[in-house]
Amino acid sequence: MTANPGFEPVFCTIIPPHVLDTLAQSDDATLAGPARRTLERDAIERTHRRLTTVIGAPSVTPPKEAAEGKPHRTIYDAKHKTELPGRKVRGEGDKPGKDATVNRAYAGLGATFELYLKSYERNSIDGSGLPMNATVHYGENYGNAFWNGEQMVFGDGDGEIFLDFTIPVDVIGHELTHGVVQYTANLTYFGQPGALNESMADVFGSLIKQYTLGQTAAEADWLIGAGLLAPRVTGTALRSMKAPGTAYDDDVLGKDPQPADMDHYVKTGRDNGGVHINSGIPNHAFYLLAEALGGHAWERAGQIWYAVLTGGDLAQDASFADFAKLTVAAARDKFGEGEEHGAVLKAWSQVGVPTN
After folding, report:
1. Per the confidence metrics, is the pTM higher than 0.90?
2. In the predicted model, is pLDDT for residue 1 greater than 80?
3. Looking at 175, 178, 296, 340, which residue is catalytic?
4. What DSSP character marks residue 137?
5. 175 catalytic, yes or no?
């Protein structure tokens, strides 16, 4: 399926603005300085994304490899500047070099391509062999990673709070999945549809990590961004799908604000209406479903979520309840009224989202 008519790609980052806002207010200049520069850079990139939407992005001709279902990856090095894409440092099929960041980015793009192709018969981000481009070493101590509607961009972090953003493969998968959402349901990036947008990115980012490691649902840690936080931070990751609200509790970052159910839904005007916060609710529903079904989560639970994302019935302004109803229908269509159907109903009931 191609992009929705009139789609408006959004600027999506892995680190929520509210986290950077907190760091920017720190009395410690080594924390506040990089956070402030990251926020300023994000604002510029967000404006650029809007302008590109108005004037149109350059058209991309899929390479000949696309018809064969093979990735076409290119990694660029910004050399700590902010001009994109930067200098090409590795192309498709090139051998690994000495830069571990370049190698991780290349591998992460490949892992994402492989999961979507092998598990969901999707040929790259747009389903038609879109080249996968990424820029590393972006900016000075830039504390984020983002999909800008056309490519991936990774910062090196400040070394104090965030490490290199290519370290967790699920961060790479998360951001590329924003591209998949852009080319399918194109969920509005505000409120509940925005939280669903973020949740889809977390779900498939986690599945890419699990697929890469060969993990079952029981073996997976269900953490988003494990390995990204520096040693001084009291926390394990950016988010937890298994236990939203427990990923970190730090004297600088504060406490993970994600709710696990609708009883604790956060009403806020920040973070585009809490898109990175309330995504914990559909995240937890997916975890509960995957745990109940067992085995490899990308096989049954993932198939249900992917069918809804790409099926054409998910409205751009869908609520959690709208999405939940469609997952129930997708489970019935794919597996009948058996274990999968019952597990979907129970998972949404446990997080307080109605399905009728």
Report:
1. yes
2. no
3. 175
4. S
5. yes
